[in-house]
What does this fold into?
Amino acid sequence: MMMQDRVSIREVGLRDGLQLISSRLDTEIKLDWIKAQADAGFAEIEVTSFVPPSILPQFADAKPVLEGAQDIDGLLPTVLVPNLKGAVLAMDAGARKINFVLSVSESHNMSNVRRSTDDSLAMLREVIAESKRRDTHSIGVALATSFGCSIEGDVSEARVANIAEQVALAGVEEINLADTVGYGDPVQIARIFRNLSKIVGTVPLAAHFHDTRGLGLANVMAAFEAGVRRFDAALGGLGGCPFAPGASGNIATEDTVHLFDRLGVATGINLDRLLDVRGRLVDWLSEERLEGRLFGAGPARRTAPGGA
It folds into this structure.
Protein backbone atom coordinates (compact mmCIF):
# COMPACT_ATOMS: atom_id res chain seq x y z
CA MET A 1 0.00 0.00 0.00
CA MET A 2 2.76 2.45 0.90
CA MET A 3 4.48 1.79 -2.43
CA GLN A 4 1.56 3.57 -4.12
CA ASP A 5 1.76 6.64 -1.88
CA ARG A 6 3.47 9.91 -2.65
CA VAL A 7 4.33 12.85 -0.40
CA SER A 8 5.38 16.41 -1.12
CA ILE A 9 8.28 17.81 0.92
CA ARG A 10 8.69 21.57 0.92
CA GLU A 11 12.09 22.96 1.85
CA VAL A 12 11.77 25.80 4.40
CA GLY A 13 15.40 26.22 5.39
CA LEU A 14 15.77 29.42 3.40
CA ARG A 15 12.99 31.02 5.43
CA ASP A 16 12.40 29.26 8.74
CA GLY A 17 16.01 28.11 8.83
CA LEU A 18 17.70 31.45 8.27
CA GLN A 19 15.46 33.52 10.54
CA LEU A 20 16.98 32.17 13.78
CA ILE A 21 20.69 32.26 12.95
CA SER A 22 23.20 35.08 13.04
CA SER A 23 24.85 34.31 9.69
CA ARG A 24 23.76 36.31 6.66
CA LEU A 25 23.80 34.62 3.27
CA ASP A 26 24.37 36.62 0.10
CA THR A 27 21.50 36.65 -2.37
CA GLU A 28 23.61 34.73 -4.89
CA ILE A 29 24.26 31.93 -2.39
CA LYS A 30 20.56 31.71 -1.57
CA LEU A 31 19.74 31.35 -5.25
CA ASP A 32 22.47 28.71 -5.67
CA TRP A 33 20.90 26.81 -2.76
CA ILE A 34 17.41 27.07 -4.24
CA LYS A 35 18.61 25.97 -7.68
CA ALA A 36 20.52 23.02 -6.22
CA GLN A 37 17.50 21.71 -4.33
CA ALA A 38 15.27 22.23 -7.34
CA ASP A 39 17.75 20.15 -9.35
CA ALA A 40 17.50 17.47 -6.65
CA GLY A 41 13.76 17.21 -7.31
CA PHE A 42 12.08 19.76 -5.04
CA ALA A 43 8.92 21.12 -6.63
CA GLU A 44 8.20 23.70 -3.89
CA ILE A 45 10.59 25.72 -1.75
CA GLU A 46 9.70 28.48 0.73
CA VAL A 47 12.36 30.91 -0.38
CA THR A 48 11.91 33.99 1.81
CA SER A 49 9.63 36.10 3.98
CA PHE A 50 8.29 39.58 3.31
CA VAL A 51 8.85 41.21 6.70
CA PRO A 52 10.46 44.51 7.75
CA PRO A 53 14.27 44.24 7.40
CA SER A 54 14.58 46.05 10.73
CA ILE A 55 13.01 42.99 12.39
CA LEU A 56 14.56 40.19 10.32
CA PRO A 57 17.44 41.59 8.24
CA GLN A 58 18.07 38.10 6.83
CA PHE A 59 15.18 38.78 4.43
CA ALA A 60 16.10 42.28 3.26
CA ASP A 61 16.65 40.72 -0.19
CA ALA A 62 13.21 39.07 -0.33
CA LYS A 63 12.26 40.61 -3.68
CA PRO A 64 15.41 39.63 -5.65
CA VAL A 65 15.43 36.16 -4.08
CA LEU A 66 11.83 35.56 -5.11
CA GLU A 67 12.39 36.98 -8.58
CA GLY A 68 15.45 34.79 -9.11
CA ALA A 69 13.66 31.70 -7.85
CA GLN A 70 10.74 32.39 -10.21
CA ASP A 71 13.13 31.82 -13.13
CA ILE A 72 13.87 28.21 -12.11
CA ASP A 73 11.95 25.80 -14.31
CA GLY A 74 9.57 23.44 -12.54
CA LEU A 75 9.84 25.18 -9.16
CA LEU A 76 7.04 26.80 -7.18
CA PRO A 77 8.75 29.35 -4.91
CA THR A 78 6.55 30.23 -1.93
CA VAL A 79 6.89 33.03 0.60
CA LEU A 80 5.72 33.61 4.16
CA VAL A 81 3.96 36.81 5.23
CA PRO A 82 2.66 37.95 8.65
CA ASN A 83 0.32 40.71 7.49
CA LEU A 84 -1.45 42.41 4.59
CA LYS A 85 1.46 44.74 3.84
CA GLY A 86 3.82 41.78 3.43
CA ALA A 87 1.28 39.98 1.26
CA VAL A 88 0.87 42.99 -1.04
CA LEU A 89 4.64 43.32 -1.37
CA ALA A 90 4.84 39.61 -2.22
CA MET A 91 2.06 39.92 -4.78
CA ASP A 92 3.73 42.95 -6.34
CA ALA A 93 6.93 40.90 -6.61
CA GLY A 94 5.06 38.15 -8.48
CA ALA A 95 4.65 35.50 -5.77
CA ARG A 96 2.44 32.67 -7.01
CA LYS A 97 1.91 31.12 -3.57
CA ILE A 98 1.81 33.03 -0.29
CA ASN A 99 1.69 31.45 3.17
CA PHE A 100 0.06 33.68 5.78
CA VAL A 101 1.13 32.91 9.35
CA LEU A 102 -0.99 33.24 12.46
CA SER A 103 -0.79 31.53 15.83
CA VAL A 104 -3.42 29.44 17.57
CA SER A 105 -1.87 30.59 20.85
CA GLU A 106 -2.96 34.16 21.61
CA SER A 107 0.27 34.86 23.49
CA HIS A 108 2.48 33.67 20.65
CA ASN A 109 0.51 35.64 18.08
CA MET A 110 1.05 38.80 20.14
CA SER A 111 4.77 38.00 20.44
CA ASN A 112 5.18 37.07 16.79
CA VAL A 113 3.04 39.59 14.89
CA ARG A 114 1.93 42.07 17.60
CA ARG A 115 -1.81 41.50 17.24
CA SER A 116 -4.55 39.21 18.50
CA THR A 117 -5.39 35.98 16.73
CA ASP A 118 -8.81 37.40 15.79
CA ASP A 119 -7.11 40.43 14.24
CA SER A 120 -4.86 38.10 12.24
CA LEU A 121 -7.89 36.14 11.06
CA ALA A 122 -9.51 39.37 9.90
CA MET A 123 -6.32 40.36 8.11
CA LEU A 124 -6.12 36.93 6.44
CA ARG A 125 -9.56 37.60 4.94
CA GLU A 126 -8.22 40.90 3.57
CA VAL A 127 -5.25 39.08 2.04
CA ILE A 128 -7.57 36.54 0.39
CA ALA A 129 -9.78 39.34 -0.95
CA GLU A 130 -6.75 41.11 -2.42
CA SER A 131 -5.57 37.84 -3.94
CA LYS A 132 -8.95 37.26 -5.56
CA ARG A 133 -8.96 40.80 -6.89
CA ARG A 134 -5.66 40.16 -8.63
CA ASP A 135 -6.57 36.57 -9.54
CA THR A 136 -2.96 35.38 -9.72
CA HIS A 137 -2.07 34.05 -6.29
CA SER A 138 -2.62 30.98 -4.13
CA ILE A 139 -3.02 31.66 -0.40
CA GLY A 140 -2.16 29.09 2.25
CA VAL A 141 -2.12 29.55 6.00
CA ALA A 142 0.36 28.34 8.61
CA LEU A 143 -1.23 27.83 12.04
CA ALA A 144 1.69 28.22 14.45
CA THR A 145 1.67 26.62 17.92
CA SER A 146 -1.04 24.14 16.89
CA PHE A 147 0.31 21.50 19.28
CA GLY A 148 1.48 23.60 22.21
CA CYS A 149 3.11 26.91 23.12
CA SER A 150 6.18 27.63 25.23
CA ILE A 151 4.46 30.79 26.52
CA GLU A 152 1.01 29.36 27.34
CA GLY A 153 1.73 25.64 27.56
CA ASP A 154 -1.16 23.48 26.33
CA VAL A 155 -3.21 24.73 23.39
CA SER A 156 -6.85 23.68 23.27
CA GLU A 157 -7.56 21.20 20.49
CA ALA A 158 -11.03 22.73 20.22
CA ARG A 159 -9.39 26.09 19.51
CA VAL A 160 -7.18 24.52 16.82
CA ALA A 161 -10.28 23.02 15.20
CA ASN A 162 -12.23 26.28 15.41
CA ILE A 163 -9.47 28.37 13.83
CA ALA A 164 -8.82 25.76 11.14
CA GLU A 165 -12.52 25.78 10.27
CA GLN A 166 -12.52 29.57 10.06
CA VAL A 167 -9.55 29.71 7.70
CA ALA A 168 -11.01 26.93 5.55
CA LEU A 169 -14.25 28.89 5.22
CA ALA A 170 -12.25 32.01 4.39
CA GLY A 171 -10.99 30.27 1.26
CA VAL A 172 -7.38 29.27 1.84
CA GLU A 173 -5.89 26.62 -0.42
CA GLU A 174 -3.76 24.87 2.22
CA ILE A 175 -3.76 24.64 6.02
CA ASN A 176 -0.36 23.92 7.53
CA LEU A 177 -0.33 22.92 11.21
CA ALA A 178 2.96 23.87 12.84
CA ASP A 179 4.52 22.42 15.98
CA THR A 180 6.43 25.66 16.44
CA VAL A 181 8.14 24.77 19.71
CA GLY A 182 8.30 20.98 19.47
CA TYR A 183 5.63 20.17 22.06
CA GLY A 184 3.66 17.71 19.92
CA ASP A 185 3.64 13.93 20.35
CA PRO A 186 2.56 11.25 17.85
CA VAL A 187 -0.74 10.40 19.54
CA GLN A 188 -1.76 14.05 19.71
CA ILE A 189 -0.60 14.68 16.13
CA ALA A 190 -2.66 11.82 14.73
CA ARG A 191 -5.76 12.76 16.73
CA ILE A 192 -5.72 16.41 15.66
CA PHE A 193 -5.10 15.73 11.99
CA ARG A 194 -7.81 13.07 11.83
CA ASN A 195 -10.24 15.45 13.51
CA LEU A 196 -9.41 18.34 11.20
CA SER A 197 -9.75 16.23 8.07
CA LYS A 198 -13.43 15.93 8.95
CA ILE A 199 -13.79 19.67 9.50
CA VAL A 200 -11.92 21.39 6.65
CA GLY A 201 -13.43 19.43 3.78
CA THR A 202 -11.25 19.29 0.68
CA VAL A 203 -8.69 21.85 1.84
CA PRO A 204 -5.30 20.05 1.88
CA LEU A 205 -3.59 19.70 5.26
CA ALA A 206 0.17 20.03 5.68
CA ALA A 207 2.50 19.47 8.64
CA HIS A 208 5.41 21.53 9.92
CA PHE A 209 7.36 19.83 12.72
CA HIS A 210 10.29 20.90 14.86
CA ASP A 211 12.59 18.33 16.41
CA THR A 212 13.14 20.30 19.62
CA ARG A 213 12.48 17.29 21.86
CA GLY A 214 13.44 14.49 19.48
CA LEU A 215 9.95 13.53 18.28
CA GLY A 216 10.09 15.16 14.86
CA LEU A 217 10.18 12.07 12.63
CA ALA A 218 7.84 10.14 14.92
CA ASN A 219 5.38 12.99 14.42
CA VAL A 220 5.91 12.81 10.67
CA MET A 221 4.92 9.15 10.74
CA ALA A 222 1.86 9.89 12.87
CA ALA A 223 0.72 12.62 10.48
CA PHE A 224 1.39 10.42 7.46
CA GLU A 225 -0.67 7.58 8.90
CA ALA A 226 -3.44 10.12 9.61
CA GLY A 227 -3.52 11.01 5.91
CA VAL A 228 -1.19 14.01 5.62
CA ARG A 229 0.81 14.10 2.40
CA ARG A 230 2.48 17.53 2.58
CA PHE A 231 5.42 18.17 4.90
CA ASP A 232 7.83 21.02 5.62
CA ALA A 233 11.46 20.36 6.49
CA ALA A 234 14.71 22.34 6.66
CA LEU A 235 18.07 21.20 5.35
CA GLY A 236 20.44 20.50 8.20
CA GLY A 237 17.63 20.85 10.75
CA LEU A 238 17.90 24.64 10.66
CA GLY A 239 15.35 26.96 12.09
CA GLY A 240 13.01 28.06 14.81
CA CYS A 241 10.88 31.04 15.72
CA PRO A 242 12.81 34.01 17.16
CA PHE A 243 9.65 35.07 19.03
CA ALA A 244 8.98 31.74 20.78
CA PRO A 245 11.12 30.95 23.83
CA GLY A 246 12.92 27.65 23.49
CA ALA A 247 12.16 27.13 19.81
CA SER A 248 14.80 25.22 17.86
CA GLY A 249 15.33 23.53 14.56
CA ASN A 250 12.97 21.91 12.10
CA ILE A 251 13.08 18.27 11.16
CA ALA A 252 16.03 17.79 8.82
CA THR A 253 15.04 17.58 5.18
CA GLU A 254 17.59 14.88 4.42
CA ASP A 255 16.41 12.69 7.30
CA THR A 256 12.77 13.14 6.25
CA VAL A 257 13.45 12.19 2.63
CA HIS A 258 15.41 9.16 3.81
CA LEU A 259 12.51 8.07 6.03
CA PHE A 260 10.08 8.06 3.13
CA ASP A 261 12.62 6.40 0.84
CA ARG A 262 12.90 3.57 3.36
CA LEU A 263 9.12 3.22 3.43
CA GLY A 264 8.89 3.09 -0.35
CA VAL A 265 6.91 6.34 -0.41
CA ALA A 266 7.74 8.48 -3.44
CA THR A 267 9.03 12.02 -2.86
CA GLY A 268 10.44 12.81 -6.32
CA ILE A 269 13.70 13.79 -4.60
CA ASN A 270 17.12 12.38 -5.40
CA LEU A 271 18.65 11.73 -1.99
CA ASP A 272 22.26 11.60 -3.20
CA ARG A 273 21.89 15.02 -4.83
CA LEU A 274 20.23 16.35 -1.72
CA LEU A 275 23.15 15.18 0.43
CA ASP A 276 25.49 16.98 -1.94
CA VAL A 277 23.58 20.20 -1.23
CA ARG A 278 23.75 19.41 2.50
CA GLY A 279 27.54 19.23 2.15
CA ARG A 280 27.60 22.67 0.55
CA LEU A 281 25.51 24.02 3.43
CA VAL A 282 28.41 23.26 5.77
CA ASP A 283 30.50 25.76 3.83
CA TRP A 284 27.73 28.34 3.39
CA LEU A 285 26.95 28.33 7.12
CA SER A 286 30.33 27.39 8.54
CA GLU A 287 29.70 29.19 11.85
CA GLU A 288 26.29 27.59 12.50
CA ARG A 289 25.43 24.32 14.16
CA LEU A 290 23.68 21.96 11.76
CA GLU A 291 21.52 19.04 12.84
CA GLY A 292 20.27 15.83 11.24
CA ARG A 293 21.60 12.30 11.47
CA LEU A 294 21.80 11.17 7.87
CA PHE A 295 24.59 13.43 6.64
CA GLY A 296 27.10 11.93 9.06
CA ALA A 297 25.88 8.34 8.98
CA GLY A 298 24.98 8.05 5.30
CA PRO A 299 21.87 6.37 3.90
CA ALA A 300 21.04 2.80 4.79
CA ARG A 301 21.23 0.77 1.61
CA ARG A 302 18.61 -1.91 1.02
CA THR A 303 17.41 -3.72 -2.04
CA ALA A 304 13.73 -3.29 -1.07
CA PRO A 305 11.81 -0.75 1.02
CA GLY A 306 10.74 -1.62 4.54
CA GLY A 307 13.36 -4.34 4.89
CA ALA A 308 11.38 -6.75 2.72
Remarks:
- The first helix runs from residue 13 to 17.
- The chain has a mean pLDDT of 91.
- The CA atoms of residues 100 and 141 lie 5 Å apart.
